[in-house]
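Students often ask why we bother encoding 3D structure as a string. The short answer is that it lets us treat folding as translation between two languages. Here is a chain of 489 residues written in the first language.
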Amino acid sequence: RHAMLLRLIGLRQVIVLLNKADLLDFDAARIAAASAAIGALLTQLDLLPLATIPASARHGDNIAARSARLAWYDGPTLIEALAAVPAPAAQTAQPLRMPVQDVYRLGEARVLVGRIERGRLAVGDTVAIGAQATRARIAAIEVWHAAPPQQAEAGQSVALRLEPEVVAERGDLLYPPDAPPQAASRLRARLFWLRAEPLRIGESFRLRLATAEYAVSVAAIAHVVDIDDLTEREGAEVPPEGFAEITLTAPEGVQFDPFEPGGSDGRGVLVDAYQRIVGAVPLLGVATLAPGERAIHPIDSAITPDERARARGHHGGVFWLTGLPGSGKSTLARAGEAMLFRQGIDTVVLDGDTLRARLNADLGFDEAGRAENVRRTAAVARLMAEAGLVVLVALISPRAAQRAVARQVVGEDFHEIHIDADLATCESRDPKGLYAAARAGRIRGFTGVDDPYEAPAAPDLRLDTAAGDTMTSLETLCAYIRRSVALAG
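And here it is in the second language, the structure alphabet:
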């Protein structure tokens, strides 16, 4: 895993220090076997060991001076190996790249500030700015309390005054007109995934690249790396702390230079809606459309969930009420909607019958139709929750696998609530006469009669509507929802 991280961040030359050689009694054969094993691993990852040094830090063997107990070893000590590491390639020889960090006012002039990541610039140079490639001349490099310099290079932070005074903003890139970066709306990226939940196709994030931010979605997972044997396999998701190659799509297009070892180009991170960094994504290049693949670019809201929560006074969330027909899902959902609304919580109900009459009118009641009914409902519920609403979903959703898909679609704001009533109680209620019709053979595949219901094994909340009265269940449900969507502090 450490070697994979070295590869991910672009280090190709490494020094291997085989510490604790004293535990192997400084035995040449056993140490050679360990050296060969780690050398083979690094070779698989395109990492070049500059030296493999047997050592014992406890006694200082082969750290700063050669060890008499390792007399058979004729390589460098650690200090000698460090001194021999070649210097990195100069960044100044490459075409200019300067991400704009901010734009200030200096009197009547507009000044662009940022750090030169590579290349160099000088007063009088013509540069292009941003995706529009607007051209301007560097009129001055502004400094305070010193004579203004005439040029600057990679590693320096500068303040530039341009002529003409073009409009630029944070995230724009300055570059030579004849050596622009790549620009694409589909990107190949290497990924190290940091979130505790797996990454799945279709999820949306913000891509931070230097000072720029772009809305992106995961369009495809090319392959996932198996950490145990470093083989690549197909996968529909990337596990926590997993490595993969993925395709990102960006509706606005992204300006970038492909990631290269030892440089700063293409080093991106993925940020979720709560401003948490959830993945490292060095950008490898432009991704082409696979045969039959559609170029779809979802666009996230410009308003963050936290901003919506502060405005509404509560977070959004999806509360998925599942249970047998007649268990009381719709009754509790509608009553909960009214109670929460009176308490100042913006609430909406997605009821199974209502959705079947409108959004999902084209779906049947076979297994495929029911699964799609759940998926569509979850997708709509997620959009509403992202808009800051509390969404009560009243849907039988009889299969555990279907509800797992709903949780996957919605994400961490999903709450599974089991409206628990036994079959006899539900059938005795039979508010729509459906149980009677199923028993008479007029309805086939009816949940609870000739189609099973898989009760949740560990729901977030269970309400026993057979034993308790409706008001008690309603108050318990609303109290749970209020706690779940309350603002911190």
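Translate back mentally: The mean pLDDT is 90. Keep this in mind for the problem set.
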